[in-house]
Task: structure prediction
Amino acid sequence: EEVSHLLNLKAQLGTVEDGSGPHKLILKTPKGTRDYGPSQMAIRADVFNKIISVFKRHGAETIDTPIFELKEVLTGKYGEDSKLIYDLADQGGEILSLRYDLTVPFARYLAMNKISNIKRYHMAKVYRRDNPAMMRGRYREFYQCDFDIAGQYDPMIPDVECVRVVSEILTSLQLGDFLIKVNHRQLLDGLFEACGVPPDKFRTICSSVDKLDKSPWEEVHNEMVNEKGLSPAVADCIGKYVRLSGKTELVEQLLQDEMLVGQCKSARDGLEALRLFLKYCTLYGLQDQVSFDLSLARGLDYYTGVIYEAVLLSDTKTEHGESSGVGSIAGGGRYDNLVGMFDPKHKNVPCVGVSIGVERVFSVLEARLASNKTKVRTTEVEVFVASAQKNLLEDRMKLCKELWDSNIKAEHSYKRNPKLLAQLQYCEEMGIPLAAILGESELARGIVKLRHVVTRHEIEVQRENVAQAVRDLLTKASGNS
Amino acid sequence: EEVSHLLNLKAQLGTVEDGSGPHKLILKTPKGTRDYGPSQMAIRADVFNKIISVFKRHGAETIDTPIFELKEVLTGKYGEDSKLIYDLADQGGEILSLRYDLTVPFARYLAMNKISNIKRYHMAKVYRRDNPAMMRGRYREFYQCDFDIAGQYDPMIPDVECVRVVSEILTSLQLGDFLIKVNHRQLLDGLFEACGVPPDKFRTICSSVDKLDKSPWEEVHNEMVNEKGLSPAVADCIGKYVRLSGKTELVEQLLQDEMLVGQCKSARDGLEALRLFLKYCTLYGLQDQVSFDLSLARGLDYYTGVIYEAVLLSDTKTEHGESSGVGSIAGGGRYDNLVGMFDPKHKNVPCVGVSIGVERVFSVLEARLASNKTKVRTTEVEVFVASAQKNLLEDRMKLCKELWDSNIKAEHSYKRNPKLLAQLQYCEEMGIPLAAILGESELARGIVKLRHVVTRHEIEVQRENVAQAVRDLLTKASGNS
Result:
């Protein structure tokens, strides 16, 4: 209690010391977070809709889980990265942490509800106390977008559908050319075994291999030898393989490689799984997009089977002019043992899934819009009800009511007597296609002017037909576009 | 450090003491929270879409803010309820709290970004460490759904649009008959002044009045006299007024009431504002739904002008068979001084808004679906690709590819050789309208059977025309429904 008294005093001192009195407030969002304004939200909504359409095309359901979990649910799932988990204060109850990803809550959900079959997507925010690099689009609060298929099925059928989903999403988002690299954890383990890596070093050597997308082989070799204690010969053996990539013919070639598959069931199983996977890829029309790549390792420990990662091949600039490089935009794989960690009897539910890097998608699209100087519409207003003279507020209100009743998106000024020019400028700024202009003399004649905002072309319509006329003009416009 | 050592020991002891070893895990979501499964999500998505359509019809933009704020942003905004705020642990950085509502973050957003005009909606989760009453649908993590208009405009024009938005939403959700009660904070303050309540008791007496929707006048009178120290005569004076409700004629009648408006500018201003408000309500077609009700007080301190609350008139049972009563389903009002609390120069941005009680909406709809025994579809699959014999996996995959390429929502079994009966049962369970059934002899003839799942009616179509035939059948079906 004395400590809290001292802390209170210190806090009071703090507010005095900064010379601004007790009401000084720092106006900011927490470190590593940001508000999303209307145009950012419009871009996000468009991306989410496109992605969700693909998920729905494949018959996926969606679920949601709380933003926080019992801390013990997350404990031991993220290795070293556990230090990045946000904890909630102990306010006299359960000990809670903010979710770090969507996969662990999904596994907890399956185990808790004894669900053994589901195909679900989940788009939601996750939290990591990482060093934010906001210029490069790395935040402490960010969206994840996951698609997973859980259930005991026949080999590679759900796995290849996940890759098909990635391909449809990237195509639909029009992000440019992409390549989906695939590999298999059993093949990697078999390769390490065949080259003579001690089993307790499989995972850490896997992490080294994972760096090959960013670092040259020499650096990775150095790390394996100098930091992780492999003999140079073992590292060389790994190096001979992990620089290979190709298609089915590479799988067939490696299946003939006695050194790799002679002694090692795991390598053979991995290769045979990949053979089936690549055959199914062809049936799903993915043969040109998928490449078998032995350097693909994926960071996470929990993968047990096929792994894949999609990279964009075109080089796009980020919002801040940096090159975004040729980077990963989606990735995933099979993880058959995670749900069992939550089940009292360790009953497993085999899972395979993919996570779409939506934050990276947003960066790429925002950069593109900025360089095109494209303005994003943030509302969907179809017609603005304007007045050409004073004292027409009530007429505007009556017309708006009719438009809303007819399910037309409409607004008018919240001022009694707005200037016509200001109203028309607002329409141009907001990209509103039509303006219904009320004037005294026109109203006396039972007429309203409908103005096409961009062309400034005006037509006169009967006051009682405005809603229908607006509807007709909008239909015609959408037919032309 | 010694303390943390002791705590560690205690934690270890704890796991030993419960007799289940260190891997015992309690499988639950945090207290007062829950997972949303596929059918709950489907109901929510439908409600959200209907509500968002109304917001968009009125030209609203949307924003999002982080799930947590600097603790000081929330401090002093919620009075006694501040104790219900979730704090994050101090992990060596800023002191953070989970958002408690969407209004305070909105005000912070406006002040921080110097935005003086916006019409925005925000649907997101908020957090309150309240005593959960999950049977009555009260959770610690729950959705709020707010619509607000910020800006310096002419009186009552945005205010009445908020009420129009409520009316459109409740109509669109088909929740049954409803009534929107309106009152004005200045009228309440003027009434308290006229009756002789000391100014420092205005807010607490306002809270007492707010209880009139649940308690009889006698109880509220008692509270005013015995707990809050009003003289019985003052309480009687209040009681004479707060039991009144009506339409414009009640406003006119009170404007003639010398005792109320003779000395008291505030009461007169409030009544004149309400007169204008009710006139605009009529222009927006709301005259039958809106009732001027002097007992409406609203709990929150920050309202400064018109206040309103929508109540459902029909009595609906909740999911758990309890009567949900005649309850508030939406509420809001004008708050002109909140943004100024965040501005360094206390510059205000006048705001008016409404919050839709979406959790209550979910309860009512879930209760209705449960009592109708209606099954909610959780996917939108249009056609299931089934096989009548073994060894047709590759044919199923090829057909699915074609359907997906044609933007048709399709799935097939993840088993190599599923039983036909199991596949058709799955279609019935999931409400999938069509099944494309592949059979060896049909494929040999270049034919696929298309089955209408409910009627079991089958037609034969050319293998190369399946996508088009599915599209035609779906169009015909939606035309008939």
